[in-house]
Design brief:
Layout (H helix, E strand, L loop, with lengths): L6 E6 L14 H16 L3 E6 L7 H6 L4 H25 L4 E5 L8 E2 L2 H9 L3 E5 L9 H11 L4 E6 L4 E2 L11 E2 L1 E2 L1 H6 L7 H9 L4 E5 L5 H6 L6 E3 L1
Parallel strand pairs: 1-2, 1-6, 2-5, 3-4, 3-5, 6-10, 9-11
Antiparallel strand pairs: 7-8, 10-11
Helix pairs in contact: 1-3, 5-7
Length: 236
């Protein structure tokens, strides 16, 4: 099969792992993500995954409760390691080869993130799960996704969401919101559309790294994207 994208960085938010739960991880959602990831890996796509942690802790919300911002962000980074461990186990249960690397070093459960090591794992066909954010407070996991995608020389950032792509307004609130099949970085900025946080978005823009925003809950959508089918919204 001809693949449009041969090396991808998939960003999965922690909130999406909630599914129908109010806290923690919905195992049906986890199994759905793992199957979708393993399917594209079996097609020969090199896959890296960046996990969020909002289903367990969000640094920003903890800060609002009075926790020091840096301390809160480190707590959020640890939650991404928990999610990384969960998706690693789920992938391995269906036969996928994985490696879990974290920017926050926890030697008992994962390898430290080293760029060249991550690339070597990817070249060997392993699904690389990148946890711990950037390893620094005051940066989101969206920024971690953009940074890691650039570092590993990914062809595209795939941002998994609950909606079909980028709209002119929140489609959950405004049913008349316009859907964009493609949009430029400049138009996203000019119209103040919420794709990623500004640091993450600027990293992609400056490095000419396309972003595809898509509805991860649609069956088979990852396979369609790597094959070059126009689904979701392409920001380039």
């Amino acid at each position: 099969m001809n693949l449009k994208y041969k090396r991808i960085l998939l960003k999965i938010s922690g909130e999406s792992l909630l599914g129908k739960k109010e806290f923690g991880i919905d195992h049906e959602v986890l199994a759905h993500y793992s199957l979708a990831i393993s399917e594209v890996a079996e097609m020969g796509v090199e896959v890296a995954v960046v996990m969020g942690g909002g289903n367990i802790f969000r640094g920003v919300s903890l800060e609002q409760g009075g926790v020091d911002r840096a301390q809160a962000d480190y707590m959020g980074m640890l939650s991404t390691v928990i999610n990384g461990m969960a998706i690693q186990d789920s992938l391995e249960q269906i036969g996928a080869k994985t490696r879990l690397l974290s920017a926050v070093e926890i030697h008992k459960v994962c390898e430290p993130y080293i760029r060249r090591r991550a690339i070597r794992h990817i070249e060997k066909g392993r699904i690389v799960i990148l946890a711990g954010g950037t390893g620094n407070p005051f940066f989101t996991t969206d920024t971690a996704a953009s940074l890691r995608a650039i570092e590993i020389e990914a062809d595209v950032v795939l941002k998994a969401t609950k909606v079909d792509g980028v709209y002119s307004a929140d489609p959950m609130i405004n049913p008349n919101a316009k859907f964009f099949e493609t949009i430029s970085f400049q138009d996203v900025l000019m119209n103040r559309l919420n794709v990623m946080d500004m640091t993450a978005f600027t990293l992609c823009q400056e490095n000419k790294l396309p972003i595809i925003v898509f509805n991860v809950n649609k069956p088979g959508i990852l396979k369609r994207i790597v094959a070059g089918e126009a689904v979701g919204t392409l920001v380039s």
